[in-house]
Amino acid sequence: MVAKPIVDEDTLDIPIPEASNLVLDDYRRLTGPGLLWDNTGAIFDVLFQDFDPEDVIKSWQVQVHRVLDALNWGNQETIERRFDGGVTLALSAPMDQLYSAMFAGLTAWHFCAADLLGQTPGDFDAMVLDLKQVMIEEANPALIALIDAAAKHGIDILSDDEEVSIGHGIGSQVWPVTNLPAPQDVPWHRLHDIPVAMITGTNGKTTTTRLSAAIAKAGGKISGLTSTDFVRVGDDILDRGDYSGPGGGRMLLRDPRLEIAYLEVARGGLLQRGLPLRRARAALVGNVAADHLGQYGISTVEEMAEAKFAVHRTLAEDGVLVLNADDPYIVAEANHTLATVWWYSLDPVAPQISDALANGAPCAWLDNNHLMFHDGKKTSSLIHVNEIPITMGGAARYNILNALGAVCLSYALGLSSAAIITGLSGFGNNPQDNPGRCNEFRVNDARVFVDFAHNPHSISAVIEAMASIPAKRRFILLGHAGDRSDQDILDVTQCALSLQPDYVVAAEVPEYLRGRKLGEVTALIQTGCKEHGLRDDQVIVAQSPAQGVAEIMQRLLPEDLALLLVLSERDKVFEMLEQAGTT
Questions:
Q1: Domain map of the chain by residue range?
Q2: How high is the pLDDT of residue 567?
Q3: Contact partners, residue 100, CB within 8 Å, separation at least 6
């Protein structure tokens, strides 16, 4: 059993003055680089109405520096980020004082909110005394000594509430945070970093992560990955679940078998806790679209692009930022990074590709259905899209982009052209290699595709691929999460209906009601189908995704096509399809 930390989020109870027009929406520790900066510390999201943001920030600055000075933390930094309807506030702190930083910020906000609301605050001296006691209890000088020593040796160090590790994978060693060695007792000669890539974007990041790991395996490396599905080293799954945050990265990078790593980075983990390392060899931003807006002060696609670009903060000095030149939000945000950029594109004459070629910078592109790569000196034609299964003969344009991104990452991490070609050609469009990403089955001589796409951007990409496939009749299974607005659900439905299906199955997803009642989401899907011109007999309501799949399977005839957008019961759906036909 892991011992409970001496200090945790319940150690202090600091009252927060609130009103309907001034709310502390969220607060949390920052354990690594993130949207705002490279520092560790604490972060606070404040929502308000009828207040001037500058007045809120001015009051916060007065109070936070008052607290920091009282704690003898005058050397720590603060930063603010304005957004529509609020502001994000942050303060830096040493890695062994993150809970203390959170409590220091809460104390500062206590006095700031009292000032703004005209309320009587608490006893400053007493609250600071409590804070100082927490700082003493949380302090871990041995950790700070190791962090400083690792920096001097040029090796990454990963830390959390339970463990500290220096180096990555086969070059790592792990110690309990309560029993750390002195720097002179660390076997520095055995510790080192391994090639690591960070992969983010709104859609396609899981496929790019899996494909990149497959290329590394083809190159003879013991590769590992984190994802929204699991953490895996080689063929061994360490744990299942959503590990697209920093915890998954630390779990993977501490495995002593690991030789090369690919970390999927989702928006949530990045904004909540930051990123787990600081010496990545490469990072990729694949695309940015409207998804999960309105959380953590991210309300626009432009702001989401800024958040995704935080991965550049994890790069080592010689690290590479791989970017999709076909995404206008990425192109715009690239103006704000000083990282070395490698571009990729479906367009051989995209301005970024032309500039890279002119300046001798590595880049990748599609030319006459061949994947091309320029290493800064010479250009190579790698492979035809027909030889890459996940591109579906070139129909899945989004997977051509994912493949180009994986090509750039692979070269940046030192893999060979032979490994890249073998990996691309051997990575299948099936549940074994890439579960839930346009997996194809044959049922009664009909083509059935399963995909986990759930937002307009990803669904549009899948629909574009499906539209190029001839079919006598088309079926779609739809089910949406209940935490989306009515308009969002209608928009996603209309997006899917661009495939012009003959039948739609609207499936309840009980696991994702998220505050709605049964029948609400399927009723919205029915409304969307009716507005699109479908008759009542063309829309079938199912009580679960599995039941919806069964409804479609019993109607399939030879040369039909079915697209199953499955949100839950995925294993059950795969089992049904495998029993009924072939992959």
A1: 22-138, 141-190, 196-426, 439-580
A2: 83
A3: 7, 93, 131, 134, 135, 138
Q: What's the per-residue H, E or C state across 538-566?
A: HEEEECCHHHHHHHHHCCCCCCCEEEEEC
Sequence-distant (≥ 6) Cβ neighbours of residue 309 within 8 angstroms: 285, 333, 336, 337
**Cα 195 to chain center, whole Å?**
19
Element (H, E) at 325: none
> For residues 99 and 106, what is the distance between their CA atoms, to the nearest angstrom?
11
Question: Taking CA 486 as the corner, what is the angle to CA 482 and CA 491, rounded to the nearest 5 degrees?
Answer: 105
Distance CA 98, CA 175 (A): 19
For residue 246, what are the CA distances in angstroms to 189, 210, 264?
A: 27, 18, 10
pLDDT of residue 122: 96
What is residue 485's predicted lDDT score, i.e. its pLDDT? 84
- CA–CA gap between residue 431 and residue 41 (Å, rounded): 41
CATH architecture of the domain covering 439-580: Alpha-Beta Complex (3.90)
Consecutive H or E run containing 427: none
Strand partners, 506: 478, 541
Query: How many CB atoms are located within 10 Å of the residue 524 CB?
Result: 23
Rounded-to-integer distance, Cα 226 and Cα 244, Å: 6
What fold characterizes domain 196-426?
UDP-N-acetylmuramoyl-L-alanine:D-glutamate ligase (3.40.1190)
User: Residue 72 region, left (φ>0) first, then alpha (ψ -120 to 50), else beta?
Assistant: left
Instruction: Look at residue 1 in the predicted model and tell me its pLDDT.
Output: 41
What 16-19 contacts at long range (C-beta under 8 Å, 24+ apart), as own/partner pairs, is 16/106, 16/109, 16/110, 16/113, 17/110, 17/113, 17/114, 17/117, 17/119, 17/121, 18/113, 19/117
| Type of residue found at 166 | I
In this prediction, residue 199 carries a pLDDT of 98
Give the DSSP per-residue string, 108-128: HHHHHHHHHHT-----HHHHH
pLDDT at residue 197, rounded to an integer: 98
Provide block-wise average pLDDT over 10 residues at a time, the chain (583 residues).
Answer: 71 94 96 95 96 96 97 96 95 97 98 96 97 97 98 96 97 97 98 98 94 98 95 96 94 98 92 94 94 78 94 96 98 96 98 97 98 97 97 94 98 98 95 90 94 85 92 95 86 92 93 88 94 94 94 96 91 91 60
Contacts of 544 (CB under 8 A, 6+ apart): 507, 508, 509, 510, 568, 569
Closest residue by Cα to residue 320 from 200, 413, 253, 221: 413
CA distance 150 to 568: 44
Helix (H) or strand (E) segment spanning residue 303? helix 301-308
Residue 261 near residue 253 (C-beta atoms within 8 A): yes
What would the two tokens of residue 287 be? 């695309």
DSSP 4: P
CB count within 10 Å of CB 354 equals 17
